[in-house]
Amino acid sequence: MQNMQLFNDITTQEPELAEAARIAVRDVLRVKPDEKVLIITNPVGDVAEISYALYDAALKADAKPVLVFQPVKDQMSFAADEVIGAIGTAPEVLISMSAEKLGKDRAAIVNPWKAEDGTEIDNTFHYLMHTKKTRAFWSPGVTKELFKKTVPIDYLRLKKEAGVVEEILNRAQYVSITSPGGTNLKIGLKGRTAMLDNGDFSAPGEGGNLPAGETFISPELGSSNGRLVFDGSISLYNGDYMLEQPVDLKIIDGFVTSIEGGEGARLLQKTIELGEKNAVEFEAAGRIPAGSGEIYKKNARNLGELGIGLNPAAGIIGNMLGDEKAYRTIHIAIGSNYDEDAKALIHCDCLVKDPTVTAYFADGSSRVFLDGGDLKI
């Protein structure tokens, strides 16, 4: 604590932001003295200011923070090589505070890491998490207002609710989803394990978004069928979009086969087509492994995630980082999944409001755990 040089000494830091940063460092990450904390951000107002506050909070915890800046990246961009190099030093704590995205790993996407369990991982950040060499949180698209509002929450309550939903999804053979907007979808979950974004990132290998607040799972490959209607917000290759008209999708054997609606549908279609086009071009340029272009192209239409929103302070505001955490919502992603067996260049989270979700178990029983958006646990 001797001779601390704080950003707060040279910038004006809002007390509410400093407190949210303190909670993130103390309660979420539980940073310990002398731990290395790598914070990666962009030279953009809100994420830079949050990063300053996180740096100060880590310094006050007697940790060893380092702050690294790179230009803003979108879903199709590669992170700066220097950023990947810094991540590769395997600090105890990693924080990605991005205006949009951290960026893809240029080297690992061509020559993936191989974990001891045989999993191939195309990002050094993900590899360090998978092998429990670091703990982390990432906040793509975060704003100061969102951070101040949704980080100081009751984490004991969140941990309990997320754990119950995790247990339900882990037992389920499949789920059915309906909604007032017209969704009528079945998603298989056999062989899948749910993941938690419960705000407890205190052990190596643990991490998630901050704001936290979801339980999520990768659908069983090829298992999803039905109608899917997005009626909240959607994420695109270059940012988030608040829907004025619903986006109506047909899903066959785990893939999007048609998209209808207004401007939101057009933008989502454009994002998917860009993911398909870039997959082929990236392979030709040697930016993804030889022979993987068609796989990445196909998976641009894959259903890659089902997530349940569980943060009571979040709402739908057109910022997916917070929107997908809101109560009374689920989100389904189009593109890559979290089990590393459906690789794609895109991962577009999209919201369904007020859903009813029923889990069906191997013994023939079932359980409605979301009823018109109300959590029934």
TrEMBL record:
EC number in record: 3.4.11.-
| InterPro entries documented for this protein | M29_Exopeptidase, NicX
- Give, as one word, the top-level EC class: hydrolase
Q: Give one GO molecular function term.
A: aminopeptidase activity
Record's keyword annotation contains Metal-binding: yes
Q: Which residues form a coiled coil?
A: none
Swiss-Prot/TrEMBL keywords: Aminopeptidase, Hydrolase, Metal-binding, Protease
Q: Name one Pfam family in it.
A: NicX
Q: Does the keyword Metal-binding apply?
A: yes
Q: Which domain of life is it from?
A: Bacteria
Report the protein name in the record. Aminopeptidase
